[in-house]
Amino acid sequence: MRLSTYAFLASLSVLAACGGGGAQRHDVPASIAPEVITAPDFADASPHPATATAARRYAVHGIDVARFQQSVHWPSARASGVNFAFIKATEGGDMVDPMFASHWRGAHAAGVRRGAYHFFYHCRAPEEQARWFFKHVPRRSGDLPPVIDMEWTPTSPTCTIRRSPEVIRADAEVLIRMFTQHYGTAPVLYTTVDFYEDNQMWKLGGTDFWLRSVAAHPSDRYPGQHWAFWQYTSTGLIPGIEGKVDINAFAGNATAWADWLARRAQP
C-alpha cells in the first residue's frame, strides 16, 4: 500500500483542489492490525511546498484530533494512512474533551495506535492537572505514551499569563515525572516554535518531543533538537474525516516505528 513519491505529492496538491477528505472509503476492513503500516493516501487543503516535500520521506503518518473533528469514520482513515492518533482528553483541571470517548473507542476498534493528550493550562498547578488526566485516561498496555501539550494561550478567555521560562520548565518536569510514574513510560511533549524558544525547552530531559512546524522541516525550526513526531500541516484532508485535520509524521521508517513502540508504548 506504499505510495510512490509522485503519488504522495499529487495527493497533497491535486486532491486538495477536489476537496480531499470527508467521504468514506468503500470496501475497507473494519479493522487493520495495528502493526500494519498503511501509506499516506490523503490530501492537504493548503499544502506548503517545503513540508509536503519533506513529509514524503517518512513512512508512518498519523493525526491528532479533538472536539473539532465531529465526524470520523476510523476504518476509512486507517485505510488511508492514519497509523496513529493522538486524541485530546483533558485541559487544565476541570475540562474533558467531549469527543474523547468516541475518538478513543473508534481509533482502537479500527486498529489505529492511540494516545491521549492533555492541554496544559497556565493558571493551575501541574499536580492538579496530572491527577485530572489520570482520572480520565486509563492505563492500557500497548497504547502510545501520553502527551503533554504546552504552548502559549493568548486567546484563552480565562488565562493568558506568561510566566518565566524557569517556572514553565519546572511545571513540565513535575508533569513528566508524574506521568512517567503513573503510566510506566515517559510522556511525549508537544510544543510550538515560539513556546519552545521562549522557554528554552531544549533544556528538558526525560521526554520525546512532538514538534509543530508547518512551513519548514523541524531541523530548520528547532536546530539540533531530537524529535519523535512532526506536525507538518493543520489543513489535512483525509477520507473519513469531515473537515481539516492535523497530520503528523513519525521520525523514522517502519522498523524504527516498531522499535520505538517496543521501548515507549505503555507496558
Q: Residue ranges: pLDDT <50 for 5 or more in a row?
A: 1-19
Oligomer: single chain
The average pLDDT is 92
| Rg, Å, rounded | 18 Å
How much of the sequence lies in strands comes to 15-25%
- Give the helices and strands as they follow along the chain: HEHEHEEHEHEHEHEHEEH
Sheet bearing the most strands, described?
8 strands, mixed, barrel
What does this structure look like?
- By secondary structure, this protein is α/β, with parallel strands linked by helices.
- The chain has one domain (5-264): TIM Barrel, CATH 3.20.20.
- 33% of the residues lie in helices and 19% in strands.
- It has an eight-stranded mixed barrel with strand order 2-3-5-6-7-8-9-10, surrounded by four helices.
- Helix 8 (218-221) links the parallel strand 8 and strand 9 (229-237).
- Helix 5 packs parallel to helix 6.
- The model is unreliable at 1-19 (pLDDT under 50).
